[in-house]
Amino acid sequence: MPYYCAHMAITKSAKKAHRASLKKHVYNVRRKRAITDTVKVVKKAISTDVKEAEKTLSAAYKAIDKAAKTGVIKKNTASRKKSRLAKAIGRAKA
């Protein structure tokens, strides 16, 4: 997916920085996609099978923690997402 930019980079270093930012953009999008996919899997499992949801929770935690570690999402956002998933599983158990 090409990234549209209104202003073209002029200097050599600006061109290089732009190339680097495009690579980082792909990486960040991939991390965010991993979070949303694993969270969807957990939520779907909560509605059908709580035991399965508990197994997939660790994968969601892993994706969330990796995104927070690299700065894709903030630390508090990661904590909130993990807390809400655990709380949802707790409610489903009861």
Radius of gyration based on Cα positions: 18 Å
- How many angstroms does the end-to-end distance come to? 45 Å
Number of strands: 0
Let me know the largest β-sheet: none
| Fraction of residues in H or I helices | over 70%
Basic shape: elongated
With helices defined by DSSP (H or I, 4 residues minimum), what is the helix count?
3
Low-confidence stretches: none
> Which series of helices and strands comes N to C?
HHH
Q: From the helix content, strand content and strand pairing, which structural class follows? A: mainly alpha
Mean pLDDT: 92
| Strand residue content | under 5%
Explain this structure.
The structure is a single chain. α1 runs antiparallel to α2 (50-70), α1 runs parallel beside α3 (75-93) and α2 runs antiparallel to α3 (75-93). This protein is elongated. The protein contains three helices and no strands. It has a domain at 33-93. It is 82% helix and 0% strand. The chain has helices at residues 12-48, 50-70, 75-93. The protein has 94 residues and is an all-alpha fold.
